[in-house]
Design a protein that fits this description.
By secondary structure, the chain is an alpha/beta fold. Helices cover about 20% and strands about 30% of the residues. The protein starts with a helix and ends in a 9-residue tail after the last strand.
Length: about 120
Amino acid sequence: MTGQDRIIAMRRQGLRPACVWVSDYRCGTDDGLTVSLSSTDVPEQQDWRFLVGLTALVDGDSAERVRRITEACKAFAKRVISTTYCLTGVVDTFGLPCRAVSSIEDTEGVMTWRP
């Protein structure tokens, strides 16, 4: 897991982001709002204390991994909104596969959506 150090530093200064992105794939974390997990990270073994009192926005391609990350984050975060994506079979102009939202889950039930 990478990216949490910037959030921890922010919290030590008495600041808090409105939300934290928790992405189950490699992505940029320089914004100080994003945490990136690699495929080898075990969600249940990560230290999620930096999420205390915050909203976590979990996203990824694997419904099972997103569920596990969500459960791990729920122990500390005030609210968790998780989004699972699926491949559409379409490739974008950069040659990357396009994804579509396949489900959204919200611990507060406000933004829950399933097709």
